[in-house]
Amino acid sequence: MYVMKKKEFMYTKKILPEGWKKKVLAAVFLAVLGNILVQYVIPWPEFMTVSYEAAAEELVRRFAWLNVWIDAAMVRSFYRLPLKEIKGVLERLVSDETLEPYEGGYIRREDLPLLEGEPAEVPEKNHTVFVLHRNDFLVKSNEHWLKERFTHAEYDVLGYLLIDGEFEGCLLGHFRNGPFELEDVAVRMEKGAADALKEDIRNAVELLYDPETSPLKRYMGEALER
């Protein structure tokens, strides 16, 4: 055993250069010195010294501006921050009158007058249908419940259907490196309403996927003619 340890020690001495211990200690000292300089000595510009709390508040302000109505679950879904921290940010933004509690969530205080009074009359119009990619901002903001509501045992969810401002369905298929395989469209509506939107939804799908290379095979489980 003694001979083996002696051989290992001699082998180590041959691999490591002379004075390696001093070099390691010098490197550690310089690293510690660099950290001290960065944190306490070097004068950083003010825009680079924003606190974590202030940065989180700015993120939520922008998030509310883009989404109009938000709640803590949406912020967590998009930014992946701890829920406790998000609730703290929302409370601070309510305290400084940036946000206002509204219908179980929050809106910007400056948007509140737009929701007061009688709703304006909206003229009749055609339905609006969009197929949103899974990385779309609105999808990522609502991903926490979209993933639970729209699932399929066999197919992947390729996108979500935003119909008249509400998530009402999804596009199902398979992800591929080449053309995607579009297997079906699932809509959470009564059959009559879903049939009435069939052409609008097909047109929305074809805006994202070339029907020549990625034709939609079925609509609500029924085969489509090419």
Fold and architecture overview:
With 226 residues, the chain is α+β, with helices and mostly antiparallel strands. 45% of the residues lie in helices and 19% in strands. The chain is built from nine helices and nine strands. The chain has helices at residues 2-15, 20-41, 52-67, 72-79, 83-95, 137-141, 143-149, 191-196, 198-208; strands spanning 69-70, 99-102, 105-108, 129-133, 156-163, 166-174, 181-187, 218-219, 222-223. The strands form three sheets. A four-stranded antiparallel sheet has the order 4-5-6-7. A hairpin with a 2-residue loop joins β2 (99-102) and β3 (105-108). The protein starts with a helix and ends with a strand.
SS-derived structural category: alpha+beta
Give the radius of gyration.
29 Å
Uncertain regions spanning at least 5 consecutive residues = 2-7
Question: How much of the sequence is in beta strands?
Answer: 15-25%
Mean pLDDT, to the nearest integer, reads: 85
Q: Strands across the major sheet, in which order?
A: 4-5-6-7
- The helix fraction, in percent, is 40-55%
* Main sheet summary: 4 strands, antiparallel
- Individual helix count: 9
SSE topology sketch:
Elements: H1 2-15, H2 20-41, H3 52-67, E1 69-70, H4 72-79, H5 83-95, E2 99-102, E3 105-108, E4 129-133, H6 137-141, H7 143-149, E5 156-163, E6 166-174, E7 181-187, H8 191-196, H9 198-208, E8 218-219, E9 222-223
Antiparallel strand pairs: 1-3, 2-3, 4-5, 5-6, 6-7, 8-9
Helix pairs in contact: 3-5, 4-5
